[in-house]
Automatic annotation (TrEMBL):
<feature type="region of interest" description="Disordered">
    <location>
        <begin position="393"/>
        <end position="418"/>
    </location>
</feature>
<keyword id="KW-0812">Transmembrane</keyword>
<feature type="domain" description="YhaN AAA">
    <location>
        <begin position="1"/>
        <end position="207"/>
    </location>
</feature>
<feature type="transmembrane region" description="Helical">
    <location>
        <begin position="504"/>
        <end position="524"/>
    </location>
</feature>
<feature type="transmembrane region" description="Helical">
    <location>
        <begin position="475"/>
        <end position="497"/>
    </location>
</feature>
<keyword id="KW-0175">Coiled coil</keyword>
<protein>
    <submittedName>
        <fullName>Chromosome segregation protein</fullName>
    </submittedName>
</protein>
<dbReference type="InterPro" id="IPR038734">
    <property type="entry name" value="YhaN_AAA"/>
</dbReference>
<feature type="compositionally biased region" description="Basic and acidic residues">
    <location>
        <begin position="402"/>
        <end position="418"/>
    </location>
</feature>
<dbReference type="Pfam" id="PF13514">
    <property type="entry name" value="AAA_27"/>
</dbReference>
<feature type="coiled-coil region">
    <location>
        <begin position="430"/>
        <end position="463"/>
    </location>
</feature>
<feature type="coiled-coil region">
    <location>
        <begin position="275"/>
        <end position="309"/>
    </location>
</feature>
<keyword id="KW-1133">Transmembrane helix</keyword>
<keyword id="KW-0472">Membrane</keyword>
<dbReference type="InterPro" id="IPR027417">
    <property type="entry name" value="P-loop_NTPase"/>
</dbReference>
<feature type="coiled-coil region">
    <location>
        <begin position="742"/>
        <end position="858"/>
    </location>
</feature>
């Protein structure tokens, strides 16, 4: 949908405004502060989606009789629409939409808006500085779905949804933190059933008996209901028969009467009135003939008696006719003299205009020039086509040169970039960069494995060193055992010497204890020394295995990063520095891929531009052919019209105008010559008539006298004759008048007789009496047909009332009114009894169903045990689902984290391109974590920042880039809406403002954009780019703007 005209009757500071805008591309509207730019943006939103309920509606409409609102002319899907929205005196909004004199409802128009609601249009398509700064507007469900919900494309969205779905399902099954979920519900149900099981009693027999009784009652109830329906249909049939029979019988009687009347007679319309009228006219005509016949005989006898001055009397009418033309003759003589003088003057003027046209112009050539309106129209049309073709070719040539210059510049820049980076094939370079990134990602994993093997080697060597020290008995153990042995030996010796039995027994005990401790220590040492040898061998084997794996891993690392395999001697600080360099390599590889993909997109755009230039070259050649064709047609038309051939339309039109003026003068001269000849011929013919009449009356000649003088003499002579001959002429006139009247009356009488005969033949009768008798019969037949038609309508109406009933004529012939009425009364009684039985039975059935419902509430023990078994099965199944969901959630979390590092949404990819242009390459990428609604922005250095860390201007550029990307995404889905920006560059510096202007022009190349600004330098920037600004005047405070 694109706006072509903005028409405001009254809105805010505007009244009677007509503002045409460009249907495609950029329209810049400049005006100082308080010029009404923001009001225009609100008006556009209001016409499309409705004016806000609060605001200017009451305060600004109160003192004005003009309607508050206006209209938009828009073009949507190759059709022109005019949208109008006004607010009446009661504050109600009135919406109208018309397309080619066809009204469109507001609901149909809302469907044409393609699911773009008012909030989306306000926050995405119509942006002021306030809307641009609002991050919350990008968090709505409809907009956020494009930025966050599908942030990683279909695969990422599926991963995120799958992870959320599995976690949600696990919480639904068992939320251990809050003690709720499906398993907890099943546990509660199982406990409730245990309590109910202890209270149940055997109620199955009682329930089955009541259920059987209820089914029996329902069966009887269905039978009664079916019988009631059948009786009602039968009663309806009898009543319908009763209503149909009377009109049917009357219709049948009228048909019989109509058959007795004659048919097939072609009786004339209004024949009886015409017959009476002709009879009266015939009688009046016969009386008039008798009267005129007597008057004619009397006048004839009087004329035969008066026969004097026969010669003059016979030619008096001719002489009088000539005398009556005396004034005409005098006028003709005067006009002849005047026209002769005009013809001489026009001939001189024609010769002068022929000299103006050129020496080679003659009267014959001038006569051949076609100066008709059709020729003028052809000349104007051909000139307009010729000039249009020239201007179209020039306009397309300028456009082609502009696009071609930009294409060559971009292509040169791309070639320079590829040459500096030593790239021969972009796809191959992208594949190599992607392989390099995969290798670097694998390098990180190899570093982890390298560190792991090193740690295992160090740990094994530490354990081996501990084994080398042996497992000796501690010194205090050895001392205690030695002390025990010495005390034992001393006590034995002392007992033997002193012959004390107790002492040497205790001595033996101590001695045996020392011997036992020493033997135990020796046995343990032998055991541990044997086990220690196997443990040492295992440690040495593990060290050798880890060293082999470490050598292999370092070899792979060396192949990837070019480092030396042996890093054991490197200090930890240097190793950390190498790890940082690897991170930097990954970042550089990622940046390399992004840069190469940007070059690939640029190359793809150049290819599209190259195709576009090829198409434009074809169009330019076509426009050149159009210019040649229209120029040839222009020259052919000039040659056809008889004008000098020239490619200058102004010169051709000047020659054409001179030729038209000369031809008009020639036509006037020809007309004057014809007038002179016509007047001379008229006077000659009049003179011949006078000479002929004068010869018949033996009058003397009129030599030396003009025609008017001769007529004066004849008039005097005729006056003398008239004085004595008036009586004769009067009688002759009376006789002629009577003869005419007699002939007319005779013709009228014959006509009346013919009409009467024709009327009788048309009716196929021989006398007026028979005609009158047949007219009465036909009148009665018409009355019968009208009555039959009314009865047919009545019967058809009855048949439409009961379309399911069909009555045969035999049924109507057998119909008896008394029997039919008696049957209806019997059916009424039977239906009444049956309805009463149905009501009683329904009441009993309701009580029985209530009893069953009460019994069903008492669940039996078997049912409870069955339900308990089902609950246990469901709990087991839920437990298995819980375990599966937890395993799947863990796996999906790992996949989502890995996927997030590699992919970002198409919308944010577009926003990254716009942000790169708007910030002159300072910020390169916009991304969002999976399942989060936070935005991260990557700088040129690779550092990521969140929105809160950006400056005001950069934040506005970020939000503008996202909205432009959203508009592109909506456009790919077929959603095209007019875009309105209101002074959104105010916080941009000069460099980024220039970049924003170029970006916005590229953005507006495929859509309609209205840009409002109060900064003249912005309007000047757009004018440098061949975008003419529409200037709005400033408004004084409190003053309304009347424009249009």
């Amino acid at each position: 949908m694109k706006i072509t005209d903005v028409m405001i009757d009254r809105y805010g500071v505007w009244s009677d405004l007509l503002l045409p805008v460009n249907e495609n591309g950029m329209t810049v509207i400049y005006g100082p502060n308080e010029a009404g730019k923001s009001t225009l943006m609100r008006f556009i939103r209001g016409v499309l989606y409705g004016y806000p309920a609060a605001g200017m509606a009451t305060s600004e409409r109160g003192d004005h009789s003009q309607a508050w609102g206006g209209s938009l002319r828009v073009r949507s899907e190759n059709q022109s629409l005019q949208l109008s929205r006004h607010i009446d005196d009661h504050g109600r909004q009135q919406f109208r939409a018309n397309s080619s004199n066809k009204a469109i409802s507001e609901s149909d128009f809302e469907r044409m808006l393609q699911d773009v609601d008012a909030d989306v249009y306000r926050t995405i398509y119509t942006l002021g500085l306030k809307e641009l700064r609002e991050l919350a507007t990008l968090q709505t469900d409809q907009v956020g779905e494009y930025i966050y919900g599908t942030s990683l494309g279909r695969i990422g969205q599926r991963l995120m949804h799958a992870e959320q779905h599995t976690q949600g399902q696990a919480r639904e099954i068992a939320d251990l933190e809050h003690g709720r979920g499906h398993l907890f519900d099943l546990s509660g149900q199982y406990g409730s059933m245990n309590e109910a099981l202890s209270k149940t009693d055997g109620l199955i027999n009682r329930y089955e008996s009541h259920l059987a009784e209820c089914r029996q009652l329902e069966s009887k109830q269905d039978e009664r209901q079916e019988r009631l329906s059948r009786l009602k249909r039968e009663r309806s049939n009898y009543r319908y028969m009763q209503r149909v029979w009377n009109p049917w019988k009357k219709h049948r009687d009228l048909q019989n009467e109509l058959r007795l009347l004659p048919e097939g007679i072609q009786f004339p319309a209004e024949g009886l009135s015409r017959l009476e009228k002709l009879d009266g006219q015939k009688k009046a005509a016969e009386e008039q003939l008798k009267k005129l016949r007597r008057e004619r005989s009397r006048l004839k006898q009087a004329l035969e008696a008066d026969g004097t001055n026969a010669e003059l009397r016979d030619h008096a009418s001719g002489v009088r006719a000539l005398i009556d033309m005396k004034s005409l003759v005098e006028s003709t003589e005067r006009h002849l003299a005047s026209v002769s003088a005009d013809a001489s003057m026009l001939k001189a003027e024609l010769e002068e205009k022929l000299q103006t046209l050129g020496n080679d112009w003659t009267i014959n050539r001038l006569a051949e020039v076609d100066t008709s309106p059709q020729a003028h129209l052809q000349l104007s049309t051909s000139a307009r086509n010729y000039q249009t073709a020239i201007s179209r070719r020039a306009r397309h040539r300028r456009k082609y040169r502009k696009v071609s210059d930009a294409h060559h510049q971009r292509q040169s820049e791309l070639q320079d970039t590829l040459k500096r980076q030593n790239i021969t094939s972009l796809p191959q370079a992208i594949r190599e960069a992607e392989r390099r990134l995969v290798d670097l990602e694998n390098l990180a994993q190899l570093r982890v494995r390298e560190a792991e093997y090193e740690q295992r080697i160090r740990s094994a060597k530490t354990q081996l060193d501990k084994q080398d020290n042996g497992r000796e008995i501690p010194w205090w153990g050895q001392s205690m055992l030695t002390l025990f042995s010495m005390v034992g030996g001393f006590l034995i010796i002392a007992g033997i010497v002193q012959s004390v039995q107790t002492s040497w027994i205790i001595g033996w005990i101590y001695l045996l204890t020392g011997i036992m401790g020493g033997g135990l220590a020796w046995s343990l040492r032998q055991h541990f020394e044997m086990d220690n040898d196997g443990y040492v061998r295992r440690l040495q084997s593990e060290i050798e295995t880890c060293e082999r794996e470490l050598h292999d891993v370092r070899g792979r690392i060396s192949r990837i990063s070019g480092e030396v395999s042996h890093r054991r001697s490197l200090p930890s600080e240097l190793q950390n520095r190498n790890r940082k360099s690897e991170t930097e390599l990954i970042r550089q590889a990622s940046q390399r891929i992004v840069d190469l993909q940007g070059l690939a997109r640029t190359q793809e755009k150049l290819q599209k531009t190259r195709k576009k230039l090829s198409v434009q070259r074809g169009k330019l050649a076509e426009y050149q052919r159009d210019v040649s064709a229209t120029r040839q047609a222009w020259c052919d038309l000039l040659k056809q019209l008889g004008i000098h051939e020239t490619v200058r339309t102004s010169e051709a039109f000047l020659s054409w105008q001179h030729a038209v003026d000369a031809q008009q003068t020639w036509q006037q001269w020809q007309a004057s010559k014809e007038d002179v000849q016509r007047y001379q011929e008229l006077l000659n013919q009049f003179r011949e008539q006078m000479e002929l009449i004068a010869g018949r009356m033996s009058l003397r000649g009129s030599d030396g006298l003009s025609l008017s003088q001769t007529l004066s003499n004849w008039q005097k002579m005729l006056e003398d004759f008239d004085q004595s001959h008036n009586s004769y002429l009067q009688k002759k006139r009376d006789y002629s008048q009577v003869v005419k009247q007699y002939r007319a009356a005779e013709s009228e009488s014959n006509r009346i007789q013919d009409d009467l005969s024709q009327l009788l033949r048309h009716a196929e009768v021989t006398s007026p009496e028979e005609f009158r008798r047949r007219a009465k019969q036909l009148q009665r037949a018409d009355e019968l047909r009208a009555l039959i038609a009314d009865l047919n309508d009545q019967l058809n109406s009855l048949s439409r009332e009961e379309p399911e009933l069909a009555i045969a004529e035999e049924d109507l012939l057998r119909y008896e009114s008394s029997n039919n009425q008696e049957r209806i009364e019997m059916l009424d009684l039977e239906i009444e009894d049956l309805e009463k039985d149905l009501a009683d039975s329904q009441e009993n059935l309701g009580r029985m169903r209530q009893t069953l419902a009460t019994l069903e509430g008492d669940t039996s023990a078997d049912d409870i045990r069955t339900k308990q078994a089902r609950i246990l099965d469901r709990a087991s199944s839920s437990l298995r689902d819980l375990q599966a969901n937890r395993i799947a959630s863990s796996a999906l979390s790992r996949l989502t984290a890995e996927f997030e590092q590699r992919f970002q949404p198409e919308t944010l990819a577009r926003a990254s391109e716009y942000l790169d242009k708007l910030t002159c390459g300072r910020y390169l990428q916009v991304r969002t974590p999976v399942g989060s609604r936070d935005l991260l922005i990557r700088e040129q250095s690779g550092t990521f920042r969140n929105v809160g860390e950006l400056s005001d201007g950069t934040r506005e550029q970020l939000f503008l880039a996202i909205r432009m990307a959203l508009i592109d995404t909506f456009a790919e889905d077929g959603i095209e809406m007019p875009v309105v920006f209101d002074d959104i560059f105010v916080n941009f510096d000069q460099q980024r403002t220039e970049a924003a202007v170029e970006t916005l022009l590229d953005f507006a190349a495929t859509r309609q954009v209205l840009f409002f600004t109060c900064h003249q330098h912005l309007a000047t920037m757009f004018e440098v780019q061949n975008i003419e600004s529409i200037w709005l005047p400033a408004l004084a405070k409190g003053e309304a703007r009347l424009a249009g």
